[in-house]
Write a structure and sequence with these properties.
This protein has 172 residues and is an alpha+beta fold. 34% of the residues lie in helices and 22% in strands. The chain has one domain: Peptide Methionine Sulfoxide Reductase, Chain A. Helix 3 links the parallel strand 4 and strand 5. The mean pLDDT is 92.
């Protein structure tokens, strides 16, 4: 098993965590805050995704990330919800840049997601980790996370662990 990791920020880390926890090949998702360097050194909500490259590739992870948060829209909360891919190596940086450039053709608006160096991680408090899997019936999960997971089922079903979204399958 060849494991790799990448970090994503974009929206609420509860949502981002739930999206990546449902994917085949993702072995672990760490939810919390990530910081980068210079003007991006403030912590922003994000996840660190550990994955098996034989089961899911970086291209698929990045495409899912771009399609499950507002990757083409700036808004007033971008400091807390920075749209970013945080890389751990120069190779990941270059590959991520290439992937975004190629995916841009599939998006009507310009992708604003930044590719930033990963510097530091602070985990969420334990109470908020694994939020969706522990609270799928809470209003936040039903209103914000379920639509993202339904999108995954409809558009990336071959990458979804059905056991993680069993309660949604009958609604599609």
């Amino acid at each position: 098993m060849e494991l790799a990791k990448i970090s994503f920020g974009g929206g609420c880390h509860w949502c981002t965590e739930a999206v990546f926890q449902t994917l085949v090949g993702v072995t672990k998702v760490e939810q919390g805050w990530v910081s980068s360097t210079k003007e991006n050194s403030a912590f922003s909500e994000a996840v660190v995704v550990h994955f098996n490259v034989k089961d899911i590739n970086l291209e698929t992870l990045i495409e899912i990330h771009l399609r499950t948060h507002k990757s083409t829209k700036n808004h007033s909360m971008r400091t807390k919800y920075r749209s970013a891919i945080y890389y751990f190596s120069q190779h990941e940086k270059e590959k991520s840049q290439k992937i975004i450039k190629e995916l841009q053709f599939d998006f009507e608006d310009k992708i604003i997601t930044q590719i930033l160096e990963f510097k530091r991680f602070k985990p969420s408090i334990e109470e908020f980790q694994n939020y969706y899997q522990s609270n799928p019936d809470k209003p936040f999960c039903e209103n914000y996370i379920n639509p993202k997971l339904q999108f995954l089922l409809q558009n990336f079903s071959n990458h979804v662990r059905k056991s993680k979204v069993r309660h949604l399958i009958s609604t599609i």
